[in-house]
Amino acid sequence: MAAKVSRIANQDGEHLGFTFYCPGCRGWHMYYTQPWVKNVETGAAGPVWTFNGDLENPTFGPSLLIYEGRHPNGDLGHPRCHLFVRAGKIQYCGDCGHDLAGQIVDMIDVERAP
């Protein structure tokens, strides 16, 4: 079996988390598993997810929610992708904005992803 996730690091080479290919969005998403600075002005930390350590059958928690962007008033945009990664499968929530909403699919091997 091949890895379903790939490690990501900051400019200094420090491990930050993992990235994976999302077939619903046709792009890459990432889970941060180490603390990282979200706001350089305030030093506020971004969210951190748990990881089971298995690169071939990963499980992360809690869910991952990707927004399309922010409205001019600062509110978050409509959910674009909302998912769980469990045992090497992506479970898409019903509020996804793509055609895989409500479905469970196998993760794609990192080296086979477009």
Explain the overall architecture:
- This protein has one domain (6-112).
- With 114 residues, it is an all-beta fold.
- The protein has a four-stranded antiparallel sheet with strand order 8-9-10-11, with no helix packed on it. Strands 1-2-3 form a three-stranded antiparallel sheet, with no helix packed on it. A two-stranded antiparallel ribbon has the order 4-5.
- Helices cover 0% and strands 40% of the residues.
- It starts with 5 loop residues before the first strand and ends in an 8-residue tail after the last strand.
Helix and strand topology:
Elements: E1 6-9, E2 15-22, E3 27-32, E4 37-39, E5 44-45, E6 50-51, E7 60-61, E8 64-67, E9 79-86, E10 89-92, E11 104-106
Antiparallel strand pairs: 1-2, 2-3, 4-5, 6-7, 8-9, 9-10, 10-11
Keywords:
114 residues; mainly beta; three-stranded antiparallel β-sheet
Any low-confidence stretches, pLDDT <50, length ≥5?
none
**Termini distance?**
18 Å
Overall pLDDT, averaged? Answer: 90
For the sheet with most strands, the description reads: 4 strands, antiparallel
How many domains? The number is 1
Shape verdict: globular
Beta-strand share of residues? 35-45%
Summarize this structure briefly:
The chain is mainly β and about 110 residues long. The chain contains no helices and 11 strands.
